[in-house]
Automatic annotation (TrEMBL):
GO annotation (BP), single: DNA-templated transcription initiation
Organism: Saccharopolyspora antimicrobica
Classification lineage: Bacteria, Bacillati, Actinomycetota, Actinomycetes, Pseudonocardiales
InterPro entries: DUF6596, RNA_pol_sigma70_r2, RNA_pol_sigma70_r4_t2, RNA_pol_sigma_r2, RNA_pol_sigma_r3/r4-like, TPR-like_helical_dom_sf, WH-like_DNA-bd_sf
Keyword terms: Sigma factor, Transcription, Transcription regulation
Domain DUF6596: 176-276
Protein name as it appears in the record: RNA polymerase ECF family sigma subunit
Family membership noted in the UniProt record: Belongs to the sigma-70 factor family. ECF subfamily.
GO terms, molecular function: DNA binding; sigma factor activity
Superkingdom of origin organism: Bacteria
Length: 404
């Protein structure tokens, strides 16, 4: 990667959400904001290659994007009011890096209850998380074309319904937060197991942004158990990041990770949040249970010391709240550690997840443990075809090639 390409990549990671947030506030239109931001980056590809990377890439992108938005409004003769408003704002100085609240406003705008839940999640992954449509489609196990249409419809609904660009009032916050948490969870997951072609297997900028925004939401709702649970889940997962990919770029499973490389401070903070929620005595929600499962894993000094019976019991609670096939798949993985691979495989084979790579990877491992080598090889092959993460593909390929 050339120095210019590297600078562009860094700028996109750092500036996309900020840029979209600034443009949305100025022009009141998500479509204009996204298009102008994308055009600014496209212009940077040409200009920075010819003129060099500017001293302040964020300010350069902001100025360019504002000009692109104004040019578009000038071309739309029916939008004279927005044209005049844009021109009056053009000379304002935007303090780069001083707009954390802008991104929070954008997050809540995209997660407005007037939108269907799936539309909220998809739109926010695009506008706040900066994920591409293929990455979002992968997160939803959906077709790329359908996901693009879903995002477009969501933006049109915000425009037509005149949904305000703001953090909701204190009374409205609790009913708005579930969609926000779902989005932040998926942004974090895309960073922790990146599916985009040509991206790093772990995208720290996405995990860091998801954690940062979750901390901000926790500041707004300090007594919300699910906000605390999601933050704990993220911290306990992020704590393992340094041990998750080998120097050769291959995924390292939880069983094989060097636990001495885990971040002790993040684990301590995550455990503290889990204990606080247990002490509260309230019935836990989905994120709190997932955080508790991760607390069990990160409490074991060695993989062999993991309390699998407690993990299965927690998954039993989670299945009652979220009876999805993916939760059932993860429960089966834990069941294999107690009742053996044959019992787990029977549970896995009942799941309708043929398009999900982890389903086939799980079957491949269980079949391998049962000595059913040809079936295991076939399942590994299907998992490799469906997986989008380069580190995971390297791991699955090695495991398949090791089969006798």
């Amino acid at each position: 990667m050339s120095p210019v390409e590297e600078a562009l990549s860094r700028a996109h990671r750092a500036e996309w959400a900020r840029l979209v947030a600034v443009l949305t506030r100025r022009f009141g239109d998500l479509d204009i904001a996204e298009e102008a931001a994308a055009e600014a980056f496209a212009t940077a590809v040409e200009r920075w290659a010819a003129d060099g990377v500017p001293p302040n890439p964020g300010a350069w992108l902001t100025t360019t994007a504002v000009r692109k938005a104004i040019d578009r409004l000038r071309r739309e003769s029916k939008r004279e009011d927005k044209h005049r408003e844009a021109l009056s704002m053009h000379d304002e100085q935007e303090p780069v890096g001083a707009i954390d609240d802008e991104r929070l406003r954008l997050l809540f705008t995209c997660c407005h209850p007037a939108l269907a839940m799936e539309a909220r999640v998809a739109l926010t992954l695009r506008m706040v998380g900066g994920l591409t449509v293929p990455e979002i489609a992968s997160a939803f196990l959906a077709r790329e074309s359908a996901m693009g249409k879903r995002i477009t419809r969501a933006k049109n609904k915000i425009k037509a319904a005149r949904i305000p660009y703001r953090v909701p009032s204190a009374e409205d916050l609790p009913r708005r937060v579930s969609g926000v948490l779902a989005v932040l969870f998926l942004v974090f997951n895309e960073g922790y197991l990146a599916t985009g072609p040509g991206t790093d297997p772990v995208r720290q900028e996405l995990t860091a942004e998801a954690i940062r925004l979750t901390r901000l939401v926790r500041g707004l709702l300090p007594d919300d158990g699910e906000v605390a649970g999601l933050l704990a889940l993220m911290l306990l997962t992020e704590a393992r990041r340094a041990a998750r990919v080998s120097d050769s770029g291959e995924l390292i499973t939880l069983h094989e990770q060097d636990r001495g490389a885990w971040d002790a401070d993040l684990i301590a903070e995550g455990h503290r949040l889990v204990r606080e929620r247990l002490a509260a005595g309230a019935a836990p929600g989905r994120y709190q249970i997932l955080a508790a499962i991760n607390a069990v894993h990160t409490s074991a000094r060695d993989a062999r010391d993991t309390d699998w019976s407690q993990v299965v019991a927690l998954y039993d609670q989670l299945v009652r709240l979220d009876p999805s096939p993916i939760v059932a798949l993860n429960r089966a993985i834990a069941v294999a550690e107690i009742d053996g691979p044959e019992v787990a495989l029977a549970a896995v084979d009942r799941l309708a997840l043929s398009g999900y790579h982890a389903f086939h990877a799980t079957r491949a491992d269980l079949l391998r443990r049962l000595g059913r080598v040809p079936e295991s090889r076939s399942a590994y092959g299907r998992a490799i075809e469906l997986a989008g993460n380069t580190a995971e593909i390297a791991y699955l390929t090695r495991r398949r090639d090791q089969l006798e």
